[in-house]
Write the structure tokens for this entry.
Amino acid sequence: MRAKIIASVIAGLVLGGIAAIAIIPGAQERVFGPSGTAGSGKALVGGPFTLTDQTGKTATDKDFRGRYMLVFFGYTHCPDICPAGLQLISAALDKIGSKADKVTPIFVSVDPQRDTPETLATYVKNFNDRIVGLTGTPEQVAAIAKAYRVYYEKTPNENDPSSYGMNHTSIIYLMGPDGEYVSHFTAMTSLDDMAAKLGKIL
């Protein structure tokens, strides 16, 4: 009986994923890339960006060339997944020791309306001094989100419009010194698994 229940749940998840790809406009491209790119061996993640860091300075993708980047999208009012992801990044970098010197962890806000450079500076300091917080205009944030295939959407709070939430992709991307995609993690990846994988790659 239990086996049947588990099989039903798995089947439901698979069919749900297929249905989402079929129904949501653009979902297939976001997951698999444009038609004709299958089998190219190159992940369609990453690209040029221009944003503002937590010190108020302009930051572009070129500023991080020669270093690995751990790129994580979120927002400072996030109640759970963002703190969990940033804590994981911080702990994993601490665990791999001197290899962490090759990595710049980057937290990109998908909430430019509230996340000013000053707000980000205070927020990222709570996790690790290595973390670079990036924000920008709504157009700049939309551009980097598109480049990294990141979904985000405001979820209004009718009782308190200023306390809206943000639904967003919670993948942690590992980008190479050349700016190309290397691997990825999620906020639910175990610390040991993330540290082990980073240790092998770096």
About this structure: The CA atoms of residues 1 and 7 lie 10 Å apart. The chain has a mean pLDDT of 84. DSSP finds six helices and nine strands in the chain. The first strand starts at residue 50 and ends at 53.
